[in-house]
Amino acid sequence: MGAQATLDSAAAAPRKTEPKTAKPGGAAIPYATITDTFSLVEATTKRLEILSLVTDLFRRVISRGGGPTNLLYTVYLCINRLCPDYEGLELGIGEGLLVKAIAQSTGRELVRIKKDLEAKGDLGLVALASRQNQPTMFRMQALTVPTVFHGLKEIASASGSKSQDKKLAVIKRLLAACAGDESKYLIRSLEGKLRIGLAEKTVLVAVAHAVMLERGAAEDELEAGTNVVKAVFSELPSYDIVIPALLEHGVDGLRARCRLTPGIPLKPMLAKPTRGVGEVLDRFDGQEFTCEYKYDGERAQVHGYTRDGRLEVRVFSRNSEEMSGKYPDLVAQMPRAIRPGVDSFVVDAEAVAWEPGADDASPGRLLPFQELSRRKRKDVQADNIAVRVKLFAFDLLYLNGEPLLHLALSERRRMLREHFVPVANEFDYATHCDCSTTADMQVFLDASVSSGCEGLMVKMLVGPDATYEPSRRSINWLKLKKDYLAGTGDSLDLAVIGGYYGKGKRTNVYGAFLLATYDEDLETYQTVCKIGTGFSEADLEAHYALLHPLEVSKKGYYDAGEAKPDIYFEPRVVWEVKAADLSLSPVYTAARGAVDARGISLRFPRFVRVRDDKAPEETTSPQQIASMYRAQATAGTRESLEDDEYW
Ligand code: ATP
């Protein structure tokens, strides 16, 4: 379909009125422009075709004018978000409310909608069919991108006692104005997943391509420009800031305009797993590297900036969520660790549960992760805190107006020590040792484990490979956990998507669970294993309480393979699990096609803990599972040591 044809297809839909003009200088984009592209994207699996469809959509939006808002809203609707992650406004409306809205806006009975849902497994399709069967009495004004975006925002931010009613009213209003395929995508957006196979990575590349092409760039300039946009975005992951800058100035100078900014969390650098001291030494042979304790807590990106003469401190999680409400004590402690002359900073650190010593002579001790995970995630009252938290800083990413990412770790560490001071029971630098022999490393590893750490992080210290690489799982950072050494391998973080009713005395709870990995390219969950061991009775009861409200009537967009749980859940909960090893499986679908036509499964999986610092899209990925499988097959070689990039 040609560009113009798609853009104007809203006119082809049975509507009475044309969309209103939005801002001076540009017309509001019809919502149908986006949903037409969604249909085309959904109909193909070819990555390049998807990229070109979305680029084409963005080009048409840009050429309509109207300032950055039109493109910004379009991008947000494509990635199904409403604002940057750290602002915490999320879609994901429960099935019950949506079923009610569809029933009320189409005049159909609730039971019939539920029956359709059983049969079709996709509420978007149910909404579409319900609308199509509805006699049209009068035509509403056609939906536009701003109307839908603001409607979704209104729904997501509704709070208070009447919030369900408010949400219902807006959903009904939007549904009533839907034409063509719009209701299908509107409902899926509200559910929190578009399921058209459009990954955010592709959207970012499409934005870069569209802006460059609209500014007259040649095809052979696209790759370099896109790399600039990706690098900028992993440092400053905010479309609100990057898109207006791109539209106004293009790619040239974008790096200087959009830099790491305190208050906006960057995507953290991640580490590759290794299987032993030998492998680490192989990797860093002849290079200057450093070993640090790997603390067993929660990643904390601590930002500080001065506003109206006062230092504000904010803490962000590994997945860019604001955690200042969980750690009011950290926020209060941080200023005491800062030397005079610091007015803005970003420190990368681990927040660890801590037991202070009885007096100044006894230093206190590290407590395991579980102690911290008992804390509420929000609105913790400082005077109500049972377990203290101590911050162990391992990196300095920004200081006094300047990003430091391009500097070598040796330099960043020097500046960290120059500008921040240890405070008893509150703040310290991560313990490190710049050792270079197997024997030294082994001694340091043992020391780390006996003081309550998980093992070591080994990092490139000097030279161009020692920079901070946001959003990358890089071979310049390796993790060496005590568990790998015991031969049990790394653990996996997996989403809980299904449950099996218990037997015997476990009939009131689920006795086993279906776990899955999220494939972000295909936007689907692939099953990995059934797990029924490692749970105490109390665990099972707690899991039931958490998971029961997440039950959904159909597997929806899960790629479940031959797995047949009694019930499916919305993907909200992530668990860390361990296994004896990985094996190929005709039943489960994880990483299917990566190493074999069969999927990869876990043998003898065991529950370790709940990972409430990870979103369900942040499970161990199918690619990582495939490389763990390969690494197991090629144990002792370095085949698995390649960088993974987020963008
Ligand atoms: P990943 O973050 O690699 O996906 P994960 O969240 O399960 O996996 P781990 O495999 O335990 O985490 O290892 C990486 C994490 O270790 C970091 O994200 C950080 O929270 C923690 N960590 C502890 N000490 C350090 C350190 N000295 N340097 C870097 N990270 C550290």
Characterize the structure shown.
The protein contains 23 helices and 22 strands. Strand 7 and strand 8 (402-403) form a beta hairpin. Bound molecules: adenosine-5'-triphosphate.
Topology:
Blueprint: H1 3-7, H2 9-12, H3 31-42, H4 47-63, H5 68-79, H6 95-106, H7 110-120, H8 123-132, H9 145-157, H10 163-176, H11 182-191, H12 200-214, H13 222-235, H14 239-249, H15 254-257, E1 270-273, H16 277-283, E2 289-294, E3 298-307, E4 310-316, H17 328-333, E5 344-355, E6 365-366, H18 369-373, E7 388-399, E8 402-403, H19 409-419, E9 427-429, E10 432-433, H20 438-450, E11 455-460, E12 472-481, H21 482-485, E13 492-501, E14 510-519, E15 524-531, H22 537-547, E16 551-552, E17 567-569, E18 574-578, E19 581-585, E20 599-603, E21 606-610, H23 622-633, E22 644-645
Parallel strand pairs: 1-12, 7-9
Antiparallel strand pairs: 2-10, 2-11, 3-4, 3-5, 5-6, 5-7, 7-8, 11-12, 12-22, 13-14, 13-17, 13-18, 14-15, 16-17, 18-21, 19-20
Task: From the structure above, extract its key features.
DNA repair, globular, 647 residues, ATP-dep_DNA_ligase, alpha+beta, 4 domains, binds adenosine-5'-triphosphate, seven-stranded mixed beta sheet, 23 helices, cell cycle, disordered N terminus, D-amino Acid Aminotransferase, Chain A, domain 1, nucleus, DNA ligase i, domain 1
